[in-house]
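Please complete every field before forwarding. Incomplete forms are returned to the sender.

SECTION A: IDENTIFIERS
Entry label: holo-290
Bound molecule: manganese (II) ion
Molecule representation: SMILES string

SECTION B: INPUTS
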Amino acid sequence: MDLGADRRGVDMGPSAIRYAGLADAVEAAGHPCADRGDLPVPRPETHDGAGGEYGDRAKFLGETREVCTALADEVAETVADDSLPLVLGGDHSIAIGSMGGAARDRDLGVVWFDAHGDYNTPSTTPSGNVHGMSLAAALGVGEFAGHDWARAGIDPENVALVGIRDLDDAERDALADSDVSVYTMSDIDHRGLPAVADDAVDVATGGTDGFHASLDMDFLDPDEAPGVGTPVRGGATYREAHAAMEEVADHRDQLVSMELVEVNPILDELNRTAELGVELVASALGKRIL
Ligand SMILES: [Mn+2]
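SECTION C: PREDICTED COMPLEX
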């Protein structure tokens, strides 16, 4: 999927992640792995993304709805089959489908590792890119209140953002007014990643049936993960990112689903961002040094 982002190339992310050895890494972490293939995604060249109900304030929203509706069914089916869906992106707009499917028939919490809040709406977005709106869409914020296909029925009190360091003004206000828990890079500086990630998982698992872990590779510092469309300096280090995923692994029995997004091979250096993403998924699924 790359309909939710301006910089083309992120649609090749899943291929790069597979090429980096995802299936072997998952199996080495102790889990059998079945690749369910790719979902069809419309090509931007053949669709007029500005033709939707919000025009260029939510580009390709109609096409995003199509893809996310299909993805939600796949995810729900996989969970019902007692498997863990691992969704590969692609831009972060696919999270609408991941969360929609994972929240079907259960109370779901979310831990969202990201530089950004992804909490804009068509009326607040500076770019019109849906990958900056996916969390707001799933929580039914603003105009999205009227979009049943996007709303996942997740209680904002069970949503935690980790690694945040770049918010738009209106997005910052909306998050401050919400019940979402926001852990910034500054919180990580002061308290350390393990304490922050521990709190975030508590938020997502308190009173829920389980949680979804969403890993945007721009959570990491661009020195570690250069292959992302919207890099922001001052992100998580290599060790902090592993510590975050080890925290997820410590709650593996409550992990319902996971996604790895925003790997853009065109902007990457010799596939190192995809390779790091694979390492981090393995950590989240229980790979240990000792
Ligand atoms: Mn994101």
